[in-house]
Amino acid sequence: MQSKRYKQLPEKTKELPAEAIEKVLSVVIANCTTKFDESVDLNFQINNKQKKNEINIRTVINLPGGTGKKVKIAVVCEDAKIQEAKDAGAEFVGGEELIEKIKGGDFNFEKLICTSGMMIKLSKLGKVLGPKGLMPNPKLGTVTNDIKKAVTDAKSGQVEIRNDKDGNIGLSIGKKSFQDDLLLKNYNAVIDSLEKEKANITIKGDLIKQAFITSSMGVSYKLKLDKNL
Q1: CATH of 73-156, one of 1.20.120.450, 3.40.109.10, 3.40.50.790, 3.40.50.1000
Q2: Is 162 exposed, middle or buried (0-12, 13-18, 19+ CB in 10 A)?
């Protein structure tokens, strides 16, 4: 059942022509009529139905304007790295004892970072961590010996770009309280990342079929991309 607040929002916005983000961003912000600081979210539908294989995109980027979210970090590392992880701001740090806690179902964190030397022990929890999207990955910078950088990046505005099995990519580029220029910087960082991903894959036609922008409790608007994606 739709709330009174939601019923007052514009209707059938998905049927409107696609517009550049500079034109539609202010409209999305104006539709943030809840009392909390709503997220400004992007959704991309990729052209992943190829004859030879499906497209799988998975990468991370650092949003220049940050995300506005507090991220709880867990770090699995050797004793010599524990203080480094704590100093960087990780909430949960440990070695085999932390692995045992995770094995027991303790998932009070959003991102898991692991040193290279501890990865062989943590990999045994692949069936537990994989479905939750928490398994550390060298490509994503979460298997590394530079713990300070990994934690700092995760805390300061790092987001993952990953399509699901239906070819959808969803992510936040900030909060309604952000200045427009910060949201635009974050948006452009995402577009630049997708452009790089397209250059690294073989694809027939466009990578992005449709793009939308919305807020946590708002309505969606089609986006016109200014780059050939």
Answers
A1: 3.40.50.790
A2: middle
Query: Residue 214's beta-bridge partner residues?
Result: 41
Quote the longest CA-to-CA distance of the chain: 57
Cα separation, 158 vs 61, in Å, equals 6
Which ranges of 125-220 does DSSP label H, i.e. alpha helix?
A: 126-129, 147-156, 180-199
**CATH top-level class for 17-67+158-222?**
alpha beta
Question: Distance (Å, rounded) from C-alpha 148 to C-alpha 169?
Answer: 28
* Whether the domain at 17-67+158-222 and the domain at 73-156 fall into the same CATH topology: no
Q: How far from 212 is each of 19, 108, 136, 219, CA to CA, in Å?
A: 10, 31, 29, 10
For residue range 38-71, what is the model confidence (pLDDT) as tens digits?
Answer: 999 999 999 877 655 678 898 999 999 999 989 9
Domain ranges of the chain: 17-67+158-222, 73-156
Residue 43 tokens read as: 């959704």
pLDDT band at 229 (very low <50, low <70, confident <90, very high): confident
| d(C-alpha 10, C-alpha 73), whole Å | 38
pLDDT of residue 53: 64
CA distance 76 to 115: 7
Q: Tokens 């805390």 belong to which residue?
A: 155
